[in-house]
Design brief:
- The protein has 265 residues and is α+β, with helices and mostly antiparallel strands.
- The chain has a domain at 173-265: 2-Layer Sandwich (Fusion Protein Consisting Of Minor Coat Protein, Glycine Rich Linker, Tola, And A His Tag, Chain: A, Domain 2), CATH 3.30.1150.
- It is 70% helix and 12% strand.
- Strands 1-4-2-3 form a four-stranded mixed sheet.
- A hairpin with a 5-residue loop joins strand 2 and strand 3 (220-226).
- The relative contact order is 0.07.
């Protein structure tokens, strides 16, 4: 019985020892696995942390480069603004100088304008003093031409009636009515008149009465222009009618009159 108890106790001890050993083995295995898992997680976390830190460093480096670029551009813009400000100040100074010079020359310019106006008024007075005698002279010449033409016609008629053998002079008939209407070179002269009127700034409508004679060659002899148009307009009309050629058929026409209507726009 004592042996049996001893055997049982021995078996129990052996069993406990084996069980304890097995438990130790299992525990060691579990701890190793846990350590491996922990090391694996730590390694993974370390790699992720390193990658994150690298990304953050790259972002910081990129931000620094961008900031440096902006700072460079701001410095460049500031330099340009300084140059622009200097240029504007220089232009303002030049403008002030011009204004000062103009202010100094204003008195001289006003004096020159007054002097020029005085000269123009003097010339206009002289021109009036010349035009009026010329108009009187034209009227006298017209009367003399009329008298001369009448005297020639009378003398010629007398010579023809008194002596048929006397060599007859060719005298153009004098006609005071039914003057020719259209000049042969009217289109050419009208083009010239239009060109002159285009250069005139006195806009408006003007009626110019032209009094003239036509000699036996068909040439117009201007006697008088009647109108309230400005002098430059009358001058253009005078140059237009001067040189007009009519088909007079060898006749002399006296006291002709025409109305020239103008519209300057």
């Amino acid at each position: 019985m004592f042996k049996a108890v001893s055997i049982i106790i021995t078996l129990t001890l052996v069993t406990n020892t084996v069980t304890h050993y097995l438990l130790q083995i299992n525990t060691a295995t579990t701890i190793n696995e846990l350590q491996e898992r922990v090391f694996s997680h730590l390694n993974t976390a370390s790699q992720e942390t390193s990658s994150t830190l690298k990304s953050v460093e790259d972002q910081i480096l990129g931000s620094n480069n961008l900031i440096n670029s902006y700072i460079g551009r701001l410095i460049e813009i500031e330099n340009k603004q300084q140059l622009n400000i200097s240029s504007v100040n220089s232009e303002l100074e030049s403008f002030r100088t011009v204004i000062d010079e103009l202010s100094d020359s204003t008195t001289i310019t006003n004096a020159q304008v007054v002097s020029a106006e005085t000269k123009v008024n003097t010339l206009e007075s002289k021109l009036d003093s010349i035009i009026k005698p010329l108009e009187i002279l034209r009227a006298d010449i017209h009367n003399l031409e009329s008298q001369l033409a009448y005297a020639i016609r009378s003398d010629t008629d007398a010579n023809i009636n008194n002596d048929d053998n006397l060599m007859q002079s060719k005298v153009s008939p004098i006609i005071s009515e039914h003057c020719p209407i259209d000049a042969l070179n009217r289109a050419e002269k009208l083009t010239q008149l239009k060109k002159e009127l285009e250069r005139i700034t006195s806009i408006g409508k003007h009626d110019v009465t032209v009094k003239f004679d036509i000699d036996n060659h068909g040439e117009l002899i201007l006697q008088q222009l009647e109108s309230t148009a400005p002098a430059n307009v009358l001058g253009a009309v005078e140059r237009y009618v001067d040189g007009l050629i009519f088909d007079s058929d060898g006749s002399v026409f006296l006291g002709c009159e025409a109305l020239v209507k103008l519209e300057i726009i």
